[in-house]
Every structure is written in structure tokens, then in C-alpha cells.
Design brief:
mainly alpha, Structural protein P5
């Protein structure tokens, strides 16, 4: 049987890296983690909550406006094909790269999180999990 992508194994659909600076709601305690590089969450809803919360903070703390701004921060060129990532997210969301998402809108942010998850994990997001994440905010 083929192993699930890392982001799905960790209930971390955005592949958020471990950080001592952030204690996430629903985060697996450090003593129980299997992955030293990426966050692990108790369930997929908490993983999506963290993904959406980070995106909202990118607007509030760093002034990200367009999808391209967000993804350039999320998936930096030092680690990713950022332009390809931006194109793929925009294609999934059916919006242009200059689209400015409303970070307080459930439908927009669930679509954005689902698109990031699709790029990160190679499979479509389960929308009920994404919406459960939104509902935990």
C-alpha cells in the first residue's frame, strides 16, 4: 500500500514547519511527535485551522494582498517552484494571480486552503475537513 503524503500523515495539509515560536491549537505534543521537521496535529480540522490562521496573519502582520504575495511567503523560492505554485493555486481557485482574497470570508479562505493542500499533497482536499478547520477559528 502506498504511504499517504507527509502533510496528510501529519494532519498538516499545508506542511507547516515546526516552530518553537508557535503553540498551535490541536498540535500533537512534542513528546509524541514522529516528524521533527513539520508540525503534527491531532486531526485534519486543526491542521486546516492552522493553515487558514497563518494566511490571515500574512495579511495582518506582513501586508500580503494578492494570491502571489501569500504564496511567495508560504512557498519561498529557496525551497519551491514558487511561480508554479502560484499558478497552480490560482488555477484551483479559478482566480488570477492578482486576486486579493478576503481573509475573513469562509468560502474564499476554505478554497484557498484547499488549493494549498492540493499542491502540497497531490490530492484534492476533503472540503468538510477544511470547513471544520474554519469553524475552529
Amino acid at each position: 500500500m502506498k504511504q499517504l503524503p507527509r502533510g496528510l500523515r501529519n494532519n498538516n495539509p499545508g506542511n507547516i514547519r515546526n516552530s518553537d515560536a508557535t503553540d498551535w491549537q490541536g498540535e500533537v505534543p512534542a513528546s509524541k511527535k514522529q516528524d521533527n521537521t513539520f508540525e503534527e496535529f491531532e486531526d485534519m480540522a486543526h491542521g486546516y485551522r492552522a493553515l487558514i490562521k497563518l494566511l490571515q496573519n500574512y495579511r495582518r502582520k506582513y501586508g500580503c494582498q494578492t494570491i502571489a504575495d501569500f504564496i511567495s511567503r508560504w512557498a519561498p523560492r529557496t525551497e519551491n517552484n514558487t511561480s508554479g505554485y502560484i499558478s497552480r493555486v490560482c488555477k484551483e481557485m479559478q482566480v488570477p494571480t492578482i486576486y486579493v482574497p478576503d481573509v475573513e470570508d469562509k468560502a474564499t479562505m476554505c478554497a484557498f486552503a484547499a488549493a494549498i493542500s492540493q499542491v502540497e499533497n497531490g490530492v484534492p482536499a476533503v472540503m468538510s475537513d477544511v470547513e471544520s478547520g474554519w469553524n475552529l477559528l
